[in-house]
């Protein structure tokens, strides 16, 4: 089982939509997939589930079938993580998020330095998400878990990134995404080195902990405007700077000559905005590439649906190749 996080500390780049669509695509390709919602805004859960089901899962107290319910014994100091519930939406599994998940932030912040003292309870808190993913994945025989996290560099995201083997970075072609890369690179390195140091202090060899992997898998350029299959000029200048900014900030490599997004091996995909499809998809409560004529996808919209499917299929396969997934389970 592989665990992937999708992360950018800049919001509004289409990260949650990317996770949602990739979860459906991996399922369509024959993978057993779980999407995990660790963003306290819980937008991924809202994309998968209707309001009636969300109302059942988000009462006044922590519901045992959400991720907040799973960690509730740790928050209360009454025990370890509970058994994670995987909500089934056709062929996709969902670890449901919760607006109250932010209550775990201070708990995790306090646990991080305590791990250096060999505090077993601190290690259990820091690894709570990872162990929940591990339990859910084994129970569902999952091939891959895709984690959606919020746009910040807080303790919840640190615990989520530690739990992941690979991190995919969605970007928008703008100044703010470039600045985000400059923040992400040093933060990843600091978290990785900090977790390596703490692993040596673990007092319980039987406690399941993630390794210090956290490897960047590459970046995806999202929602760039297109004109005649080329980015408009306003975005082109920022796209030109992405490859070497990613090298310097995230990979700690020297700049490369003549590298562009189109030929950059670290670029996993550039995805069009598909503005006309997203409202239909939200109304139909399905991914854009599964829209049918009955959903309103007719004429040029129908051809856009076909393009969308091929784009996400290519991206899913490239991520699988980059992260070392076994391809035997994928449909041809």
Describe, in plain words, how this protein is organized in 3D.
- This protein has helices at 15-28, 43-48, 51-57, 67-76, 104-114, 120-126, 128-140, 155-163, 175-199, 233-251, 277-284, 300-322; strands spanning 2-6, 33-37, 87-89, 92-95, 144-148, 166-171, 215-224, 226-227, 230-231, 267-272.
- The chain is 46% helix and 14% strand.
- It has 12 helices and 10 strands.
- With 332 residues, it is an alpha/beta fold.
- It has one domain: Rossmann fold.
- The relative contact order is 0.15.
Map the helices and strands.
Elements: E1 2-6, H1 15-28, E2 33-37, H2 43-48, H3 51-57, H4 67-76, E3 87-89, E4 92-95, H5 104-114, H6 120-126, H7 128-140, E5 144-148, H8 155-163, E6 166-171, H9 175-199, E7 215-224, E8 226-227, E9 230-231, H10 233-251, E10 267-272, H11 277-284, H12 300-322
Q: How would you summarize what this structure contains?
A:
About 45% of the residues lie in helices and about 15% in strands.
Our Rg estimate from Cα atoms comes to: 20 Å
Overall geometry:
globular
**Contiguous uncertain segments of 5+ residues:** 327-332
Proportion of residues in extended strands: 5-15%
The termini sit apart by 20 Å
Order of helices and strands: EHEHHHEEHHHEHEHEEEHEHH
The CATH homologous superfamily name equals P-loop containing nucleotide triphosphate hydrolases
Q: Percent helix among the residues?
A: 40-55%
Biggest sheet character: 8 strands, mixed
Under CATH at level 1, the class stands as: Alpha Beta
Strands, count: 10
